[in-house]
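Section 5.1 Outputs to date
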Amino acid sequence: MTERNILTIFAIHTFFSYGMDKKETIKAFTRFLKEENNDAFYQSFSFRGCNIIYTNKKGEVKEISWFSFSRIYDDIVKIKEYKFNNDTWHKMAA
C-alpha cells in the first residue's frame, strides 16, 4: 500500500460523498478504512485521530495527516463546482 493509493481512494470517496462537509468526509473515510482494515487490508493501517499510519513497501512507517486529506478535499470540491457550473452554462446556452 502506498500513500498515492490511499489518497486516490480518498479522492474517489470525496467525489462521491454528497452533502458532507470536509470534517465529516474525512471522518467517514477513516471510519471506512477502520471497518475494512481487518478484512480487505489485513491490518495494514493504524490510526491517530484522523491521521492514517501505514507501512510502505520498504517497511518504513509513514503517516498521512489530516491536512493532506483536507487539501485533496478542497481540490475535489473545486472540480465538482467547476463541473456543475460548466454543465449549468451549457444548459443555459442551449
